[in-house]
Write a structure and sequence with these properties.
Structural class of chain A: mainly alpha
Radius of gyration of chain B: 18 Å
CATH topology of chain A: MetI-like fold
Shape of chain A: elongated
Oligomer: heterodimer
Order of helices and strands of chain A: HHHHHHHHHH
Largest sheet of chain A: none
Shape of chain B: globular
Largest sheet of chain B: 6 strands, mixed
Helix content of chain B: 25-40%
Helix content of chain A: over 70%
Number of strands of chain A: 0
Strand order of the largest sheet of chain B: 6-7-8-3-9-10
CATH superfamily of chain A: MetI-like
CATH class of chain A: Mainly Alpha
Bound molecules: adenosine-5'-diphosphate, magnesium ion
Number of strands of chain B: 10
Structural class of chain B: alpha/beta
Number of helices of chain A: 10
Largest interface: A-B, 17 and 30 residues
């Protein structure tokens, strides 16, 4: 590591700033993100409202912070559900194979052949909109892609001699799966977590934009984009700042995924 | 000395979709307590499958069918209960694989891998396990065992990795160690060190060793008795010198002819 790795520094700083903003959204924002103020509608960015105000006179910066927090929360929990479920299913089907593997993987193919937002809409039409239903729907929908990834890693790994060696020592199947094999999949797994996180951010933003995601008064970045589109020309800051934050978030996590893959590929 | 392992008419068949392929045919032999028995034969002759069958690594219910008997200390490993297998395989029977690269888990520290079998089978405390691991590493002449204990496989050379593998299979004090082409992936100079190591283990711990190699000259150096396999069948069995100087089968003659000439003068 002679040369300073600028892309790593950049990624860390970017994600650090975003995390800081999201934490601000949870803990303390300069203005109450939901407080309306009829006198200050569509105020352009200035020293008081650095991102300006929206159609209800709410401070866009405070709402971006809060929305970022919501989007973060939805993305993290969604990825957790998807990764956890996917790991268990992928490990079992990949390691044991057989008829159960066939059935589950064909089912996976069916689920994977629909666009995820479309499937999420089906879920939401049954469950009703709202933050937690979005998390549930997206989490379930992300399971197949993780399952497929973990499964193929397990199929690759299970034929290595170190697994035979563990079997010879009569290590139990679960010990072999989760203690011996799973740690070998982390490089692929970690980078797919980052990609999954991005997909979750986009899916949440998309669903909120369509009005089937996070419901008002909850702020979310996608929701803000949807509300702002009618005022795109009169109050561009209302759309631009949430949009930029989404872009930066996706950029940051894509770069994180790349870095994780590179670092682990080096072994 | 009695028989430690007795293989009686072992046949191994792969059940394909249409074809049934018998890859090991009616093989019988025995390993005595404390001896080093060699199995020679070109690649594809069924040596590895025989070894895996003894180690219990051919799935009993898979696409493989096993016939015959594998008696270890008089118990048939092909029919006895799971709990009894646990006692023998991985404990009394251990195995060293060909590729020191893939037979160690790349993301697990050396120490933990060496301890794994006593961790699964035993009741030792963490400290006692480490002591045993260090002992095993000293047995296989790894320098700085304390340091290597905390290393990962990719930080070690091929020869060191194979020593780690041998330490891991030694730690449970096995009665029988199966070594399947343990030196094939190594340089010639390191090959000889590893052969010496097997001799030492055999001498000091009275561990019987089933040494498998396609290289008859290694078997000549290491083993008192040897078998030769050809296309799944045993075609020769006996004293190594006997086989080497008076091969009965023309295939064995060819195998000997494959050895570089300077080795034959030894
Ligand atoms: N999973 C398998 N399915 C079908 N045939 C196999 C399988 N594994 C090994 N064989 C066949 O069994 C024979 C013996 O293999 P092996 O015991 O590995 O030989 P060796 O160790 O002597 O080189 C080979 O001809 C090989 O093609
Ligand atoms: Mg082989």
């Amino acid at each position: 590591m002679k040369k300073p790795e600028y892309h790593i520094v950049f990624t860390v700083v970017l994600l650090g700033v975003l995390t800081f903003l999201a934490l601000m959204g949870f803990i303390h924002t300069p203005y109450d993100p939901d407080a309306m103020n009829g006198l200050e509608k569509f105020a352009a960015p200035d020293l008081h409202h650095i991102f300006g105000t929206d159609h209800f006179g709410r401070d866009v910066f405070s709402r971006v912070c809060k929305g970022l927090g919501t989007t973060f929360f939805v993305a993290v929990t969604t990825v957790m559900i998807g990764a956890l479920g996917g790991t268990v299913i992928g490990a079992l089907t990949g390691y044991f194979g057989g008829i159960l593997d066939e059935i589950i993987m064909r089912f996976n193919d069916v689920v994977a052949s629909f666009p995820s937002v479309l499937l999420a809409m089906v879920f939401i039409s049954i469950l009703g909109p709202g933050k937690y239903n979005v998390i549930f729907a997206l989490g379930i929908i992300f399971i197949p892609s993780y399952a497929r990834m973990v499964r193929s890693e397990f199929i690759k790994q299970k034929n290595f001699d170190y697994v035979k060696s563990a079997k010879l020592m009569k290590a139990g199947s679960f010990r072999i799966m989760f203690l011996h094999i799973f740690p070998n999949t982390t490089s692929v797994f970690m980078s797919s977590l980052a990609i999954g996180f991005n997909n979750a951010v986009l899916a949440e933003a998309g669903m909120s934009y369509l009005g089937i995601g996070v419901q008002p008064p909850d702020a979310s970045l996608g929701r803000m984009l949807s509300e702002s589109q009618a005022y795109l020309f009169t109050a561009p800051w209302f759309a631009i700042f949430p949009g930029i934050v989404i872009i930066l978030m996706i950029l940051g996590f894509s770069m994180l995924g790349d870095i994780l893959q590179q670092k682990n590929g080096g072994i | 000395m009695g028989n430690l392992l007795e293989v009686k008419s072992l046949s191994i068949t792969f059940e394909g979709n249409q074809a049934r392929e018998k890859v090991v045919r009616n093989v019988s032999f025995s390993v005595m307590e404390g001896e080093i028995l060699g199995i020679a034969g070109e690649s594809g002759s069924g040596k590895t499958l025989t070894a895996l069958a003894i180690a219990g690594l051919l799935n009993r219910h898979g696409a493989v069918s096993l016939e015959g008997e594998i008696l270890f200390q008089g118990k048939n490993l092909l029919t006895c209960k799971r709990e009894e297998l646990r006692r023998y395989q991985g404990n009394d029977i251990s195995m060293v694989f060909q590729e020191p690269m893939s037979s160690l888990n790349p993301v697990m520290k050396i120490g933990r891998q060496i301890e794994e079998s006593i961790k699964i089978h035993g009741t030792l405390s963490k400290k006692e396990r480490k002591e045993k691991a260090i002992w095993a590493m000293e047995c296989v002449e790894l320098e700085n065992p304390e340091k290597i204990y905390h290393r990962y496989p990719h930080e070690l050379s091929g020869g060191m990795r194979q020593r780690v593998m041998i330490a891991a299979s030694l730690i449970s004090n096995p009665r029988l160690m199966i070594a399947d082409e343990p030196t094939t992936a190594l340089d010639v100079s390191i090959q000889h060190q590893i052969l010496k190591l097997f001799q030492k283990i055999n001498r000091e711990n009275h561990t019987a060793i089933l040494f498998i190699s396609h290289d008859l000259s290694l078997i000549y150096h290491l083993c008192g008795r040897a078998l030769v396999m050809y296309e799944g069948s045993l075609i020769e069995e006996g004293n190594t010198k006997e086989i080497f100087y008076h091969p009965r089968h023309s295939y064995t003659k060819n195998l000997i002819a494959c050895i570089p000439t300077y080795e034959k003068k030894v």
